[in-house]
Amino acid sequence: MRLTEKYIAQLAEYVKKNLKKGYTKESLKWALINQGHSKLEVEKAMAKVEKDLAAEAPLLRTKPEIKVEIVEPKDAVLKKKSFWKRLFGL
Predict the structure, then answer these.
(1) Is residue 8 within 8 Å of residue 45, measured between CB atoms?
(2) Position 2 confidence tier, pLDDT thresholds 50, 70, 90
(3) Within a domain: residue 51?
């Protein structure tokens, strides 16, 4: 049983290293499966990687502040066309 855990840990380290290089999880998963690794062991390694990366992620203690500002032009003059000009396109 210890050999399998060590094997999964090695796969997980491989995945972490290649995620840092910019590869996606899906591409790494299918690359390992196509190289002959067991699908179940690859999925266990992926779960371990996600768990490890979640533990390393920093916790955000502050909530983001959303500010809304409405900007209207100062010199804007709205001209409203009469019904007849809108109707005939004048």
Answers:
(1) yes
(2) low
(3) yes
Token pair for 23: 């590869």
23-80: per-residue pLDDT in tens? 999 999 999 999 999 999 999 999 999 999 998 888 878 887 889 888 777 776 677 7
pTM > 0.70: no
Which stretches of 1-90 are DSSP H helices?
A: 2-21, 25-34, 39-56, 83-88
Residue 26: both structure tokens together: 């899906």
Q: Please, are residues 42 and 29 in contact by the beta-carbon 8 Å criterion?
A: yes
Q: How far apart are CA 90 and CA 83, in angstroms?
A: 10
For residue 14, how many other CB atoms are within 10 A of its CB? 16
Domain assignment present for 90: no
